[in-house]
Every structure is written in C-alpha cells, then in structure tokens.
C-alpha cells in the first residue's frame, strides 16, 4: 500500500473502527495489509485477485476455498504500484500508470502485449473497462492535461484515440477524475485541472461532463459543490460511486446519471472497510451483479501499526448501505440568476416608473415639440414642415432670433422679397393663433421686437413656458 493509501487508512480508522467482519456474510481472507499491493475481481467468473511484489494469487469462485499462486517478475523498481490492475475478457491486465505498456496474465506468466512505451503523458489517467476493452481518460504530463479517451486496441496493440467528432465543446483536461457509465453515457467529474495561467498549479475540478458514446459528443452538465478530493472512494458501483467521509462518519453515494447525492449513515456492517489508494488506483472494494466485495480489516491492528489481516466480505449492496439521511442535487447548472436579478429588475422597474411618472408630470399641460411634430395631452397635432422648423428654431435659441433667420426657413425663391416677408409674417401669425386657441389664452406666444444691439434689426422671441422639447 502506497503512502497516500496509508494516510487515508489512518484517516478512516476512526470512521470505520477497524472492527472484524461480522454477520452471516461470506468472508474470504487474502493476507496481510502491509504486504498487499493490489486487488481486482473478474465480473464474469468472479475470480478474486490479490497482488504482492513478487506474486499474484487467484481466489476461485464460488466458495473461494481454492486458490492458485502465480510468481511474477518485478517489471520495474515501483512494481506493482506503478501499474493499474484491471480485468477484461476474464483476463487480468496490468497497465502502466505513466505510459502505455500493457501486460496480460496468461497461465503462470505475465506477457507484454503492447507496442507502446513509457511516454509519461497520462499520469493519473482514469482506467476503466467497457465491453472488454480497456479505456483510459485524461492524465497529466509535460505541464498539460489530457481531455480525451484512449483505448487499447488488441488488433494494433497500440493505444488509439477516441475523437469526439460530434462535439461543439470539450471539457478541460484533468487527472485523477472519476468516471461512471449509464446507458450510452460516460460521466466524468472530480480530479484536478491546471491553472490556465500558471501550469505549475492545480485546482480541484468541480465540473461534471458527460460523453455520449454513440454520438461522440461531450455535454457540460453543471458544477458540483464538492469534487470529493478529500473523501476517499469506498467502492465503484458502475453507474454510481460510494465515497467515505472521515469527518462526519457518513457515506456519500454519488449518482451523476440522476443528478443525485445521497448521504448514508454509517452502521456496524460498514466497520473495517479499507479505502482505495486514490493515486495508485490499486486495491479497494468491488461491485458486480448486485454483490459487494468489500475489502475489510479482519482483526484489530496494534495502535499506530496498520498491519493486520484483510479480506473480502461478500454481501448484497442493500445489506451494506445504512439508512439514507439526506438527498440533494449533485450538481447545478449556472443559469440566469433570477433571485439577484429579480431584485435588480425590481429596482430598475421602480426607478423606471419614477422617471416615467416625473416625465409625465413634466409633460402635463405642455405642448411637446420634436422633429416628428407636436403633441398635446396625448394627441398628435398637425403642423406643416415650415412652421415646425420655425417653432424649433425659436425654442432651441438661447437668445432672440433675428427675423432674417426665420425668413431663411420660409422664403420661396420664385417670390420677391416683399412677398417672402409676408409669408414669414403669416407663418408666425398662424402659429400664434394656433397656440392661443390650444391654450385658451389671449396672449401671443411669439412676439417681434427691435434688437437691443441694433434697432434696425427685427428679432423674434417665444415664451417657452408652455412648451417641452423632446
């Protein structure tokens, strides 16, 4: 067992109490915890495998009283923890954790199958088996993460890539992710992702994605509150994963396919369960055909010493899980923030109504004048273009308007100057009559004066009080 596994073992000691197996469940002793390096199970034949640095022992179903010991060579300095153990087509395979080498247990020997090498580009990749084919996802190497699946081809004896040709988006790469499968979907979550700026830093990955194997399409489902980095995996259930919570003495049952996170209470049947080595992905408990193969401590080791007898206790899943105490959504999709936005929209609406009310108050009993014409008390007033131009000129002026400027707006080139002056005067008189009738007043709103600077110059001035420019 690696350093990480020993740390997790110590953390879970208080949680699971390291009590002996109890009850009527079948128990298969497999050896000593200190020397045991890995375990596996064949879901078809239900053969159990236990690994040591120099050998593999096969425990044969159905009663596991018969076993067979196979001596194996030391493949490298870190063997067997440098290899991941999986079973496919009722055969034990050992896959290199830092590269692409693949060994198969055939008879009493390990035989190499691949044409690969130790590329160190998928460190911490997640290994799983689908239809007797070995897949791996993600992994870290050369300051970058992988975000694709590869599979070992028995025909080419190489690792081939799975291209997500149906995707419009792909997840960020990650290592030490968890994968569950349900129907055509593979769900990927947890693990670590690189900092997008600093490739020497990693962050917990809380995003949950799923991959449709038929359509070869990725889909982002949402973000989780917890990526379970500090909750060691207890057993992989295929479409679910059971994690342990050392701090709260609880189990978390993670069900990505149904967006469900169920918390279960610890019961005496759970005592003594050993965690999986989260880094080496070695050992741990297994699940197949409704039966749990729970790796447990079979005696109480001495204080501070993790040595002790271990074995598998076989029982139905429903016998192992304690009562559910809480159920909640596993992930949430970041959508429109209706709560905060509602407050903002409400405030904006109140401000808008206030502005509209103030505007309506200002417009009350006012003649609204703009480039589009005139309105009064909600009614549109007809006005010819020349009269509107004169009215706008007077309303926009900061001082008196020379009569010549008014004349320039209304004069007609084919008329003589005297006639054009009459046209100007008619436009002004028509406007005054219109406003006196509209406002029921006897006063002219547009008046003519002599300029204070030059008494020879005639100017116009308008009472702007009844008007509102728009």
Structure notes:
The protein has 470 residues and is an alpha+beta fold. The chain has two domains: 3-332, 6 Propeller (Neuraminidase); 366-469, Orthogonal Bundle (Arc Repressor Mutant, subunit A). The protein has a five-stranded antiparallel β-sheet with strand order 14-15-18-19-28, with no helix packed on it. Strands 20-21-22-23-27 form a five-stranded antiparallel β-sheet, with no helix packed on it. Strands 1-26-25-24 form a four-stranded antiparallel β-sheet. The chain starts with a helix and ends with a strand. Residues 1-22 and 335-339 have low confidence and may be disordered.
Q: For the CA atoms, what is the radius of gyration?
A: 41 Å
The CATH topology of the largest domain corresponds to: Neuraminidase
Main structural class? alpha+beta
CATH superfamily of the largest domain: Tricorn protease N-terminal domain
How does the overall form come out from the CA principal axes? rod-shaped
Number of domains: 2
For the termini, the CA-CA separation is 81 Å
Number of strands: 35
Name of the CATH architecture of the largest domain: 6 Propeller
Number of helical runs? 6
CATH top level of the largest domain is Mainly Beta
Helix % is 10-25%
Strand content: 35-45%
Signal peptide: 1-25
Keywords: Membrane, Signal, Transmembrane, Transmembrane helix
Transmembrane segments: 336-356
């Amino acid at each position: 067992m690696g350093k990480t596994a020993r740390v997790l073992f110590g953390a879970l000691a208080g949680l699971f109490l390291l009590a002996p197996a109890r009850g009527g469940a079948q128990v298969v002793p497999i050896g000593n915890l200190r020397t045991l390096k890995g375990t596996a199970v064949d879901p078809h034949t239900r053969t159990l495998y236990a690994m040591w640095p120099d050998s593999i022992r096969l425990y044969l179903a159905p009663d596991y009283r018969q076993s067979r010991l196979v001596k194996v060579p030391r493949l490298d300095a870190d063997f067997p923890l440098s290899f991941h153990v999986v079973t496919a087509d009722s055969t034990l395979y050992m896959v290199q954790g830092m590269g692409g080498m693949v060994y198969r247990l055939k008879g009493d020997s390990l035989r190499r199958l691949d044409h690969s090498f130790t590329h160190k580009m998928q460190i911490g990749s997640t290994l799983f088996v689908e239809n007797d084919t070995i897949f791996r996802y993600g992994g870290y190497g050369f300051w970058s993460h992988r975000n694709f699946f590869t599979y070992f081809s028995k025909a080419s004896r190489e690792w081939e890539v799975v291209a997500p040709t149906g995707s419009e988006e792909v997840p960020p790469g990650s290592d030490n992710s968890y994968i569950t499968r349900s129907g055509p979907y593979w769900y990927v979550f947890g693990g670590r992702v690189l900092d997008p700026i600093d490739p020497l830093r990693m962050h917990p990955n809380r995003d949950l994605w799923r991959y449709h194997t038929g359509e070869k399409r990725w889909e982002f489902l949402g973000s989780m509150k917890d990526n379970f980095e500090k909750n060691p995996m207890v057993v992989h259930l295929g479409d679910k994963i059971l994690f342990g919570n050392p701090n709260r003495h609880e189990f978390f049952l993670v069900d990505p396919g149904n967006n469900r996170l169920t918390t279960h209470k610890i019961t005496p049947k759970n005592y003594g369960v050993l965690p999986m080595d989260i880094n080496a992905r070695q050992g741990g408990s297994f699940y197949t055909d409704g039966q749990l193969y729970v790796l447990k401590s079979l005696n109480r080791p001495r204080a501070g010493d993790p040595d002790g007898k271990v074995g598998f206790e076989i029982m139905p899943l429903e016998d192992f899980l304690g009562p559910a105490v809480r159920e909640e959504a596993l992930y949430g999709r970041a959508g429109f923030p209706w709560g905060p936005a509602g407050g903002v929209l409400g405030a904006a609406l109140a401000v808008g109504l206030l502005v509209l009310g103030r505007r309506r108050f200002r417009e009350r009993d006012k003649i609204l004048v703009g480039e589009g014409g005139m309105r009064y008390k909600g009614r549109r007033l007809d006005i010819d273009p020349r009269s509107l131009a004169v009215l706008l000129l007077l309303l926009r002026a900061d001082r008196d308007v020379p009569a010549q400027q008014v004349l320039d707006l209304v004069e007609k080139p084919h008329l003589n100057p005297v006639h054009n002056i009459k046209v100007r005067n008619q436009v002004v008189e028509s406007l005054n009559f219109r406003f006196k009738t509209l406002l029921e007043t006897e006063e002219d709103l547009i008046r003519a004066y002599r300029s204070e600077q030059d008494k020879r110059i005639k100017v116009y001035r308008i009472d702007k009080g009844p008007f509102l420019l728009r």
